[in-house]
Amino acid sequence: MKLRKLLESCHLCPRKCGVNRINGQTGACNETLSISAARAALHMWEEPCISGENGSGAVFFSGCSLGCAYCQNHDISGGLNGKEITIKRLSEIFFELKEQGANNINLVTPDHFIPQIIEAIDMAKEQGFNLPFVYNCSGYEEIDALKLLDGYIDIYLPDFKYMSAELAARYSHAPDYPEVAKTALAEMVRQVGGDQTTFDEDGIMKRGVIVRHLELPGCIEDSKAVIRYLYKTYGNNIYISIMNQYTPMEGIGKKFPELNRKLTEREYDELVDYAISIGVENGFIQEGETASESFIPPFTNEGV
Predict the structure, then answer these.
(1) Can you give the residue ranges of the Radical SAM core domain (predicted)?
(2) Which of 9, 84, 94, 236 has an alpha carbon within 20 to 30 A of 263's alpha carbon?
């Protein structure tokens, strides 16, 4: 209850809107005090050590404070889709996903609901809940908000989208993204990374940091800069996931014609080869035709 007072003048994300979400105002995230979620189900398309064969228990929250122009989850990131649920209901969802065999609870785009999520986790743990919690986010995270999660999150799964402030401004209206993401990642690694990284006997991650980078069409040099920074800064203290699943959503070509195509095989291979050439070993790549809408789940309020 005390943490929810943070929403009276919300600074949970780097936008620092300062709106009173308790009184129904919405800021950059498009959300108020009430938790809104659009899907809670087993998700099979995460990294192998997250989904495994059983699946990851993914809770897709509505709203997003970053708002990338090319967002694949735009149906929910704009706050236009989703169902309001209570903190108690969120805690119940954790148990329902566990009953379905989930390896973990995967909190997708959760940053604007951190106080409520902490209450839900406390409620669940009081009843003996013991699955790892995954914080699956854009990387555009407020450091003080992340510190609230110390001891609650077992696995951080952030994006690191750009090293270029110009690209971050053009596609996400966030020229500060690179510096914010660097600071956020350092806190995530402090909490659960490095020699704290653990896997079970089946290769499922129990604790650690996996950083995702989605290569965008025509942005190979920036992508190389991202991979270089991650490896030179953290080495084997994190895992790097290089993704080729960029999907041009309807209408993207009107404002950003350069993004109105899928990534070519040559572009992706060049980035993977570069990562290998500088020494990256702890990582994941995608093979085959992953850039398809089959990787975008239906947001029909299933499970919420």
Answers:
(1) 50-281
(2) 236
C-alpha atoms less than 13 angstroms from C-alpha of 139 in its C-beta half-sphere: 28
* Cα angle: 285, vertex 189, 185; to 5 degrees: 75
Residue ranges of domains in the chain, CATH in brackets: 3-295 (3.20.20.70)
Displacement of CA 14 from its chain's centroid (Å): 15
Q: 89-134, pLDDT tens digit by residue?
A: 999 999 999 999 999 999 999 999 999 999 999 999 999 999 999 9
Q: Which of 59, 245, 33, 213 is CA-nearest to residue 135?
A: 59
pLDDT tens per residue across span 161-197 = 999 999 999 999 999 999 999 999 999 999 999 999 9
Please state, in angstroms and rounded to a whole number, the distance separating the CA atoms of residues 264 and 287. Answer: 12
> What span, in angstroms and rounded, lies between the C-alpha atoms of 169 and 153?
29
Strand partners, 214: 243
Q: Is 33 left (phi over 0), alpha (psi -120 to 50) or beta?
A: alpha
* Per-position DSSP letters for 39-64, written without gaps between them: EEEEE--S-HHHHTTT-EEEEEES--
Distance, CA of 231 to CA of 239 (rounded, Å):
9
Burial code (b: 16+ CB inside 10 Å, e: under 16) for 284-298 equals bbbeeebbeeeeebe
